[in-house]
Design a protein that fits this description.
7 helices; elongated
Length: 121
């Protein structure tokens, strides 16, 4: 749906993602889920109202969200969690790391900050 009526080559050109990679994604021939960088690029150039949350669900990342499930990703758009997830994707894309690595870092940082506050308190 994100490709719309464009050719894979055109979608690749519009998004800045290798058309061969897009073709392999569409044929489920890619072993690992796309990185945050790829998801962001594909979402930015997507047609038919396909957004980041749709691509996150397709890539299997939505279950990483606290309380989130694949079945409720349609209700996810516009929520605070969606906005937070979009920020995680943008930051992960900026540093060229996976969304999982970004979440691991955020979780680790949160635990460290809690320990520091506990020691100070």
């Amino acid at each position: 749906m994100a490709k719309g009526d464009r050719s894979i080559n055109r979608y690749g050109s519009d998004s800045g993602v290798d058309p061969g990679y897009i073709s392999r994604l569409l044929r489920a021939m890619v072993e690992n889920a796309p990185s945050a960088v790829i998801i962001k690029k594909l979402a930015d150039a997507a047609f038919n109202g396909v957004g980041v949350q749709d691509l996150l669900a397709a890539a299997g990342y939505l279950d990483l969200l606290p309380g989130g499930t694949d079945s409720d990703h349609n209700h996810f758009s516009g929520s605070e969690q969606h906005q937070q997830w979009e920020r995680v994707i943008e930051e992960a894309a900026r540093y060229d790391i996976s969304p999982e690595e970004a979440l691991d870092f955020i979780s680790s940082l949160g635990k460290s900050m809690a320990r520091i506050r506990k020691k100070e308190g």
